[in-house]
Amino acid sequence: MAEDADSKRVLVTGVGGFIGGFLARDLASRGYEVIGTARSRQGVPLSVVSSCRELHAVSIGGATDWTTLLAGVRAVVHCAAHVHIARPSRHDQRLFQEVNVEGARRLAEACRGKKVELLINLSSIAARAVELGPERAGYGHSKAEGEQAIERALAGSLSRHVCLRLPAVYGPGCKGSLGLLFRLLGSGLPLPIVTGAAKRSYLSVWNLADCVEHCLLKPPSHSCTVAVADPTTLDLEELVLTIAQARGRRQPLLRVRRTTLAVLARLIGRGRQFERGFRADVVDPAEAMVALGWQPSLSAAECWARVVAAR
Q: Do residues 96 and 136 make contact, with C-beta atoms less than 8 angstroms apart?
Protein backbone atom coordinates (compact mmCIF):
# COMPACT_ATOMS: atom_id res chain seq x y z
CA MET A 1 0.00 0.00 0.00
CA ALA A 2 1.14 3.56 -0.66
CA GLU A 3 3.01 5.13 2.22
CA ASP A 4 0.59 7.02 4.53
CA ALA A 5 -2.32 5.99 2.29
CA ASP A 6 -5.81 6.41 3.70
CA SER A 7 -7.69 3.12 3.28
CA LYS A 8 -10.85 5.10 2.51
CA ARG A 9 -9.26 7.61 0.10
CA VAL A 10 -10.13 6.69 -3.50
CA LEU A 11 -9.43 8.55 -6.73
CA VAL A 12 -12.29 8.30 -9.26
CA THR A 13 -11.62 9.61 -12.77
CA GLY A 14 -14.34 10.78 -15.13
CA VAL A 15 -16.87 11.80 -12.48
CA GLY A 16 -18.51 14.11 -15.02
CA GLY A 17 -19.77 11.06 -16.90
CA PHE A 18 -22.75 8.80 -16.27
CA ILE A 19 -20.80 5.90 -14.75
CA GLY A 20 -18.09 7.90 -12.98
CA GLY A 21 -20.65 10.24 -11.42
CA PHE A 22 -22.74 7.36 -10.11
CA LEU A 23 -19.70 5.60 -8.64
CA ALA A 24 -18.48 8.81 -6.98
CA ARG A 25 -21.84 9.27 -5.27
CA ASP A 26 -22.11 5.61 -4.34
CA LEU A 27 -18.61 5.36 -2.85
CA ALA A 28 -19.13 8.58 -0.88
CA SER A 29 -22.39 7.17 0.52
CA ARG A 30 -20.42 4.11 1.68
CA GLY A 31 -17.97 6.26 3.64
CA TYR A 32 -15.15 6.58 1.11
CA GLU A 33 -13.26 9.85 0.69
CA VAL A 34 -13.60 10.48 -3.04
CA ILE A 35 -11.08 12.51 -5.01
CA GLY A 36 -12.74 13.16 -8.36
CA THR A 37 -11.46 14.25 -11.75
CA ALA A 38 -13.37 15.52 -14.77
CA ARG A 39 -12.43 17.21 -18.02
CA SER A 40 -14.05 20.36 -16.61
CA ARG A 41 -15.79 21.24 -13.38
CA GLN A 42 -18.52 22.88 -15.44
CA GLY A 43 -21.36 20.49 -16.14
CA VAL A 44 -20.56 18.11 -13.28
CA PRO A 45 -23.86 17.57 -11.41
CA LEU A 46 -24.03 19.24 -8.00
CA SER A 47 -24.81 15.87 -6.39
CA VAL A 48 -21.45 14.61 -7.68
CA VAL A 49 -19.57 17.76 -6.69
CA SER A 50 -20.91 17.51 -3.14
CA SER A 51 -19.93 13.82 -2.98
CA CYS A 52 -16.28 14.54 -3.76
CA ARG A 53 -13.87 15.63 -1.06
CA GLU A 54 -11.91 17.25 -3.89
CA LEU A 55 -12.79 17.75 -7.55
CA HIS A 56 -10.06 18.52 -10.09
CA ALA A 57 -10.22 19.44 -13.77
CA VAL A 58 -7.84 17.03 -15.50
CA SER A 59 -7.11 16.47 -19.17
CA ILE A 60 -6.20 12.79 -19.41
CA GLY A 61 -3.45 11.73 -21.76
CA GLY A 62 0.14 10.64 -22.03
CA ALA A 63 1.46 13.73 -20.23
CA THR A 64 -0.96 13.98 -17.30
CA ASP A 65 0.72 14.64 -13.95
CA TRP A 66 -1.00 12.50 -11.31
CA THR A 67 1.56 12.98 -8.54
CA THR A 68 -0.41 15.36 -6.34
CA LEU A 69 -3.78 13.71 -6.90
CA LEU A 70 -2.48 10.28 -5.84
CA ALA A 71 -1.08 11.52 -2.51
CA GLY A 72 -2.53 9.30 0.22
CA VAL A 73 -4.73 7.42 -2.24
CA ARG A 74 -5.18 3.73 -1.58
CA ALA A 75 -7.08 2.83 -4.78
CA VAL A 76 -8.07 4.30 -8.14
CA VAL A 77 -11.29 3.69 -10.08
CA HIS A 78 -10.53 4.72 -13.64
CA CYS A 79 -13.78 5.56 -15.46
CA ALA A 80 -12.62 8.33 -17.79
CA ALA A 81 -12.47 7.44 -21.48
CA HIS A 82 -13.18 8.71 -24.94
CA VAL A 83 -16.36 6.72 -25.42
CA HIS A 84 -17.70 4.62 -28.26
CA ILE A 85 -18.90 6.57 -31.30
CA ALA A 86 -20.82 4.98 -34.17
CA ARG A 87 -18.86 6.87 -36.84
CA PRO A 88 -15.54 7.98 -35.32
CA SER A 89 -13.69 10.73 -37.14
CA ARG A 90 -9.91 10.97 -37.42
CA HIS A 91 -10.03 13.27 -34.40
CA ASP A 92 -11.93 10.60 -32.46
CA GLN A 93 -9.33 8.01 -33.46
CA ARG A 94 -6.58 10.26 -32.08
CA LEU A 95 -8.53 10.70 -28.84
CA PHE A 96 -9.07 6.94 -28.55
CA GLN A 97 -5.30 6.54 -28.61
CA GLU A 98 -4.43 9.54 -26.43
CA VAL A 99 -7.08 9.08 -23.72
CA ASN A 100 -7.84 5.36 -23.69
CA VAL A 101 -4.32 4.07 -24.29
CA GLU A 102 -1.72 6.67 -23.39
CA GLY A 103 -3.87 8.09 -20.60
CA ALA A 104 -4.31 4.64 -19.06
CA ARG A 105 -0.59 3.96 -19.37
CA ARG A 106 0.35 7.23 -17.68
CA LEU A 107 -2.08 6.66 -14.81
CA ALA A 108 -0.80 3.12 -14.24
CA GLU A 109 2.80 4.34 -14.21
CA ALA A 110 1.85 6.96 -11.62
CA CYS A 111 0.10 4.31 -9.49
CA ARG A 112 3.25 2.23 -9.61
CA GLY A 113 5.40 5.18 -8.58
CA LYS A 114 3.11 6.08 -5.65
CA LYS A 115 2.63 2.40 -4.67
CA VAL A 116 -1.15 2.65 -4.98
CA GLU A 117 -2.57 -0.67 -3.84
CA LEU A 118 -5.24 -1.19 -6.51
CA LEU A 119 -6.17 0.25 -9.90
CA ILE A 120 -9.68 -0.67 -11.05
CA ASN A 121 -9.89 0.08 -14.76
CA LEU A 122 -13.33 0.18 -16.37
CA SER A 123 -12.92 -1.35 -19.79
CA SER A 124 -15.42 -2.77 -22.27
CA ILE A 125 -16.42 -6.12 -23.70
CA ALA A 126 -15.61 -4.42 -27.00
CA ALA A 127 -12.00 -5.16 -26.06
CA ARG A 128 -12.85 -8.86 -26.02
CA ALA A 129 -14.37 -8.57 -29.49
CA VAL A 130 -11.07 -7.17 -30.76
CA GLU A 131 -9.30 -10.30 -29.55
CA LEU A 132 -11.68 -12.40 -31.64
CA GLY A 133 -11.63 -10.31 -34.80
CA PRO A 134 -9.41 -8.39 -37.21
CA GLU A 135 -10.33 -4.89 -35.97
CA ARG A 136 -7.28 -2.69 -35.61
CA ALA A 137 -8.78 0.71 -34.88
CA GLY A 138 -11.62 2.31 -32.99
CA TYR A 139 -12.99 2.23 -29.47
CA GLY A 140 -12.73 -1.50 -28.81
CA HIS A 141 -9.15 -1.66 -30.00
CA SER A 142 -8.18 1.32 -27.83
CA LYS A 143 -9.71 -0.29 -24.74
CA ALA A 144 -7.83 -3.54 -25.44
CA GLU A 145 -4.59 -1.59 -25.87
CA GLY A 146 -5.32 0.34 -22.68
CA GLU A 147 -5.67 -2.92 -20.76
CA GLN A 148 -2.33 -4.10 -22.13
CA ALA A 149 -0.66 -0.78 -21.31
CA ILE A 150 -1.82 -1.03 -17.70
CA GLU A 151 -0.64 -4.62 -17.41
CA ARG A 152 2.82 -3.73 -18.73
CA ALA A 153 3.12 -0.62 -16.55
CA LEU A 154 2.27 -2.49 -13.34
CA ALA A 155 4.09 -5.76 -14.06
CA GLY A 156 6.32 -6.75 -11.15
CA SER A 157 5.13 -3.89 -8.93
CA LEU A 158 3.28 -3.78 -5.61
CA SER A 159 0.26 -2.29 -7.36
CA ARG A 160 -2.40 -4.67 -8.62
CA HIS A 161 -4.99 -3.96 -11.29
CA VAL A 162 -8.45 -5.24 -12.13
CA CYS A 163 -9.74 -4.50 -15.62
CA LEU A 164 -13.52 -4.81 -15.56
CA ARG A 165 -14.93 -5.40 -19.04
CA LEU A 166 -18.43 -3.95 -19.12
CA PRO A 167 -21.35 -4.59 -21.47
CA ALA A 168 -23.97 -1.86 -22.02
CA VAL A 169 -24.44 -0.12 -18.65
CA TYR A 170 -27.80 1.31 -17.59
CA GLY A 171 -29.24 3.26 -14.69
CA PRO A 172 -30.95 6.58 -13.96
CA GLY A 173 -30.01 9.09 -16.65
CA CYS A 174 -28.35 6.55 -18.94
CA LYS A 175 -27.77 7.64 -22.50
CA GLY A 176 -27.01 5.78 -25.71
CA SER A 177 -29.22 3.06 -27.13
CA LEU A 178 -30.62 1.95 -23.74
CA GLY A 179 -31.54 5.51 -22.84
CA LEU A 180 -33.24 5.92 -26.21
CA LEU A 181 -35.11 2.64 -25.74
CA PHE A 182 -36.35 3.76 -22.32
CA ARG A 183 -37.64 7.03 -23.79
CA LEU A 184 -39.35 5.23 -26.68
CA LEU A 185 -41.13 2.94 -24.24
CA GLY A 186 -42.32 6.00 -22.34
CA SER A 187 -43.99 7.34 -25.45
CA GLY A 188 -46.58 4.57 -25.43
CA LEU A 189 -46.20 4.03 -29.17
CA PRO A 190 -45.87 0.49 -30.57
CA LEU A 191 -42.25 -0.56 -30.66
CA PRO A 192 -40.96 -2.44 -33.72
CA ILE A 193 -39.62 -5.83 -32.65
CA VAL A 194 -37.74 -8.30 -34.81
CA THR A 195 -37.82 -11.92 -33.77
CA GLY A 196 -34.56 -13.78 -33.67
CA ALA A 197 -32.47 -11.06 -32.02
CA ALA A 198 -29.51 -12.43 -30.11
CA LYS A 199 -29.19 -12.63 -26.35
CA ARG A 200 -27.06 -9.88 -24.87
CA SER A 201 -25.63 -9.06 -21.47
CA TYR A 202 -26.30 -5.79 -19.67
CA LEU A 203 -25.06 -4.30 -16.40
CA SER A 204 -26.84 -1.98 -14.00
CA VAL A 205 -24.92 0.76 -12.22
CA TRP A 206 -25.96 -0.81 -8.90
CA ASN A 207 -24.39 -4.17 -9.69
CA LEU A 208 -21.32 -2.38 -11.06
CA ALA A 209 -20.98 -0.30 -7.89
CA ASP A 210 -21.33 -3.43 -5.77
CA CYS A 211 -18.57 -5.12 -7.80
CA VAL A 212 -16.27 -2.10 -7.45
CA GLU A 213 -16.69 -1.99 -3.68
CA HIS A 214 -16.18 -5.74 -3.48
CA CYS A 215 -12.81 -5.26 -5.21
CA LEU A 216 -11.93 -2.45 -2.80
CA LEU A 217 -12.82 -4.52 0.26
CA LYS A 218 -11.42 -7.82 -1.01
CA PRO A 219 -8.74 -7.06 -3.63
CA PRO A 220 -7.84 -10.10 -5.72
CA SER A 221 -4.57 -11.77 -4.86
CA HIS A 222 -3.31 -11.11 -8.38
CA SER A 223 -4.10 -8.75 -11.23
CA CYS A 224 -6.81 -9.85 -13.65
CA THR A 225 -9.10 -8.88 -16.51
CA VAL A 226 -12.70 -10.04 -16.13
CA ALA A 227 -16.09 -9.31 -17.68
CA VAL A 228 -18.99 -8.49 -15.36
CA ALA A 229 -22.72 -8.32 -16.06
CA ASP A 230 -26.19 -8.73 -14.62
CA PRO A 231 -27.08 -12.38 -13.92
CA THR A 232 -29.53 -12.75 -16.83
CA THR A 233 -29.03 -12.29 -20.56
CA LEU A 234 -31.91 -10.82 -22.56
CA ASP A 235 -32.89 -10.57 -26.19
CA LEU A 236 -34.53 -7.34 -27.34
CA GLU A 237 -38.10 -8.51 -26.75
CA GLU A 238 -37.25 -9.78 -23.26
CA LEU A 239 -35.52 -6.48 -22.47
CA VAL A 240 -38.54 -4.47 -23.64
CA LEU A 241 -40.95 -6.62 -21.61
CA THR A 242 -38.71 -6.36 -18.53
CA ILE A 243 -38.71 -2.56 -18.74
CA ALA A 244 -42.45 -2.45 -19.45
CA GLN A 245 -43.13 -4.61 -16.41
CA ALA A 246 -41.02 -2.28 -14.28
CA ARG A 247 -43.11 0.62 -15.57
CA GLY A 248 -46.29 -1.26 -14.72
CA ARG A 249 -47.60 -0.94 -18.27
CA ARG A 250 -48.32 -3.20 -21.19
CA GLN A 251 -46.05 -2.43 -24.11
CA PRO A 252 -47.61 -2.62 -27.58
CA LEU A 253 -45.24 -4.39 -29.94
CA LEU A 254 -45.13 -4.21 -33.70
CA ARG A 255 -43.52 -7.31 -35.17
CA VAL A 256 -41.48 -6.45 -38.25
CA ARG A 257 -39.51 -8.65 -40.63
CA ARG A 258 -35.79 -8.41 -40.12
CA THR A 259 -35.15 -7.74 -43.82
CA THR A 260 -37.47 -4.71 -43.72
CA LEU A 261 -35.69 -3.12 -40.78
CA ALA A 262 -32.30 -3.97 -42.27
CA VAL A 263 -33.15 -1.99 -45.41
CA LEU A 264 -34.35 0.98 -43.36
CA ALA A 265 -31.20 0.84 -41.20
CA ARG A 266 -28.98 0.90 -44.28
CA LEU A 267 -30.92 3.84 -45.72
CA ILE A 268 -30.18 5.95 -42.63
CA GLY A 269 -26.57 4.78 -42.44
CA ARG A 270 -27.04 2.41 -39.48
CA GLY A 271 -26.66 -0.90 -41.27
CA ARG A 272 -23.57 -2.07 -39.35
CA GLN A 273 -25.10 -1.18 -35.99
CA PHE A 274 -28.31 -3.01 -36.91
CA GLU A 275 -26.49 -6.19 -37.89
CA ARG A 276 -24.33 -6.01 -34.75
CA GLY A 277 -27.55 -6.15 -32.74
CA PHE A 278 -28.14 -9.66 -34.08
CA ARG A 279 -24.82 -10.97 -32.82
CA ALA A 280 -24.71 -12.52 -29.38
CA ASP A 281 -22.75 -10.52 -26.84
CA VAL A 282 -22.92 -12.59 -23.68
CA VAL A 283 -20.89 -12.50 -20.48
CA ASP A 284 -20.63 -15.66 -18.40
CA PRO A 285 -21.50 -14.66 -14.77
CA ALA A 286 -19.21 -17.42 -13.51
CA GLU A 287 -16.21 -15.51 -14.85
CA ALA A 288 -16.45 -12.82 -12.15
CA MET A 289 -17.19 -15.39 -9.46
CA VAL A 290 -14.03 -17.33 -10.27
CA ALA A 291 -11.75 -14.32 -10.69
CA LEU A 292 -13.15 -11.99 -8.00
CA GLY A 293 -15.36 -14.10 -5.76
CA TRP A 294 -18.23 -11.75 -6.70
CA GLN A 295 -21.64 -12.25 -8.21
CA PRO A 296 -24.41 -9.71 -8.92
CA SER A 297 -27.02 -9.47 -6.21
CA LEU A 298 -29.77 -7.67 -8.15
CA SER A 299 -31.77 -9.04 -11.07
CA ALA A 300 -32.51 -7.07 -14.22
CA ALA A 301 -36.14 -6.69 -13.11
CA GLU A 302 -35.07 -5.20 -9.76
CA CYS A 303 -32.62 -2.83 -11.45
CA TRP A 304 -35.06 -1.55 -14.07
CA ALA A 305 -37.61 -1.01 -11.29
CA ARG A 306 -35.04 1.23 -9.63
CA VAL A 307 -34.50 3.13 -12.90
CA VAL A 308 -38.26 3.74 -13.15
CA ALA A 309 -38.49 4.79 -9.49
CA ALA A 310 -35.63 7.28 -9.96
CA ARG A 311 -37.45 9.21 -12.70
A: no
Model confidence at 88: pLDDT above 90: no
Domain boundaries, the chain: 6-166
Indicate whether 232 pLDDT > 90.
yes
Helices (H), 114-217: 125-132, 139-154, 176-187, 205-217
The residue that leads in pLDDT, 133 or 304, is 304
Instruction: Outline where the chain has alpha helix (H).
Output: 18-29, 46-51, 90-95, 104-113, 125-132, 139-154, 176-187, 205-217, 236-247, 258-267, 271-276, 286-292, 300-310
- Say what the pTM is: 0.91
Q: Name the DSSP class of 310.
A: H
Does domain 6-166 sit in CATH 3.40.50.720? yes
- Is residue 190 very low, low, confident or very high in pLDDT (cuts 50, 70, 90)? confident
φ, ψ of residue 164 to 5 degrees: the values are -95, 115
Integer CA distances (angstroms), 207 to 7, 56, 112, 228, 241, in order: 22, 27, 28, 9, 21
User: Which residue, 158, 153, 148, 155, is CA-closest to 74?
Assistant: 158
CA-closest candidate to residue 283, choices 149, 120, 166: 166
> Can you tell me the mean pLDDT for 100-110?
98
Which pLDDT does position 46 carry in this prediction? 96
